[in-house]
Each structure stands twice: as C-alpha cells, then as structure tokens.
Request: fold
Amino acid sequence: MSSLFIAGHEFHSRLFTGTGKYASADAMLASLVASESELVTLSLRRMDLKHQSDNILQPLQKQGMKLLPNTSGARTAKEAVLAAELARDALETHWVKLEIHPDPRYLMPDGVETLLAAEALIKKGFVVMPYVHADPVLCKRLEEVGCQCVMPLGSPIGSNMGLASRPFLEIIIEQSAVPVIIDAGIGAPSDAALAMEIGADAVLVNTALAVAKQPAQMGEAFRLAVQAGRIAYESGLGEKRVQAQATSPLTDFLGGLS
Amino acid sequence: MNIMLNDVPFEFFGNTLTDLLDSLEKEAKGIAIAINQKVVPRSLWDRTELDEQSQVFIFESIAGG
Reply:
C-alpha cells in the first residue's frame, strides 16, 4: 500500500480518527492505537475553570500521533480564523481541520464561510484541511485557493449513514489534484473500504469507533477495512457488467456424449 | 487584580498572564489565551500585563472529531 502525502508529511495509515464521544480516555487510546491512525483530531473550548479535564494530549503524542485541531464551534469565517490561531498556539501546529457549521441540527458545513476562512488561513501560513459538503465545485475552489486536501462528507456527522453522497464524491475524486479525505458519516468498516475502493485518499472516522461496544476491536476492524479497500483500489478493480462472463472455459465435452 | 475571565469576574494575585495561570493551577500545555479577541502567543505570557478592563479567554484542548 502506498503512503499518503499531505503538505509534504508522509502518512503510512490512510485512516484518520477523531477523539470525541469515547466513554473514557483509556477506551479512546486503545481504539486509536489499534486503528494505527497517525492523525487524530482535537477540539478547543473555553477552559472549564472548576474542573480539571482529562489530559489526553500526552498519551496521544507519546504514540507518535500527529494532532489536528479543528475549528468546531465556529459559525463564521472570522470565528474559525480565531479558533485556528488559538489552536496553533495551544497545540503548536499550523495544521487545522477547518469546519464551520452554524446549524446544530444537521451540522451542515457552511461552504461560503469555509472558502473565506480557507483563503485567510492559507495567507497566514496554515495547512488547511476543509470539511465541506460533497460539492465538486466548492472542492475545486478550495484547491485553487491553496488547501492541501479536501474533506467532503459521506453523510451527516455522526449519522453512520455511510457514503450517501457517493456520486458527488466520485466526481470530486476524479477532478481533485489534492488528496480527498472522506469525512463524516462513515458508520461501518464496509463504508470505509468502499470509500477507499472508489479512490478516496483517506477517511476520517470518529463516531463509529467511539460508540462501538469494543472500541479497540473496532479500531482494528477499520484498520483492516481501510487497508483492504486501498490495496484493492491500487490493484485495479474489475469493471461491473450486466451479462455473465465465464471464469472457466466453456467447453462442449458434455455435448459430445449425447 | 480583578479581570473578566471567560466571561466571569475573576480575582488573582499578580498582574501578568503567567501570574493568572499560576493562580489557576492549570497545565500550560494544550491551552491558548486571547485578550480582547486577539491571541496572545505563549512566548508573550510572561510579559503581558493585564488591567481591570481585560477580557481574558483561556481555551483548552479537548477530545473532538
């Protein structure tokens, strides 16, 4: 399986992961270790002054995982730029997963604000990974302003509905000159394998791992599925056809007996 | 000194951002600070003096997707 390069950084694993929604920090770590993910997302929030929160940074960094802060919570380009600048200082990385979703019900990304924020952040030297709808035109625009990859959604965040946007993802993959990472909605290893088979460069999975009864085992399942899907893609899948085509030569030796 | 910290009145001993963090007994790793909507890089925390009008926001990294 080939490596994936984003902004010159080499990834051996094509499974990126989120850290949210796990029952405990231990469950999260066990799942991410089993997944062999090399890029994990984090969020920022206003500090809770009353309670000490779990220290999840140290164990993640100890595993050699690259941290990718997101701008979750931002509703406008301006808020997202501030969130990215805060994250850069907090986590000492100029990589950012740009996500702007003003609507809490469906968490649909705001494409207009995302494009504006991407332009501003790229001028400030960020590696921008934008989370967007599976919109081929917007993905091209993001590439043109300098995004190092695009992250279109398969289906709504946390919905486990898989690749509901598949026809549009296929157009994005065909047109894109930067890596395409399918983010959101991937609910089962088969969804992840399919994403890789249709030519996605990577997938980002969170909920499906975090809510599994055995998150560590599910991490392994996704690791294998992503590898299988990618290897299949690189091997060249056969075309689909309506008519049968024999895999054994059709001889007529039985005909000769009658 | 009295300031507004994360939208709540807050009193601490000293006048720099570092003094503020000391009084909170929080780890400096994984956090970021903004004053009046501008990020203050951690290299400047020592030298950044606050006044009673300062609107300070401290952010921390948490799990997320």
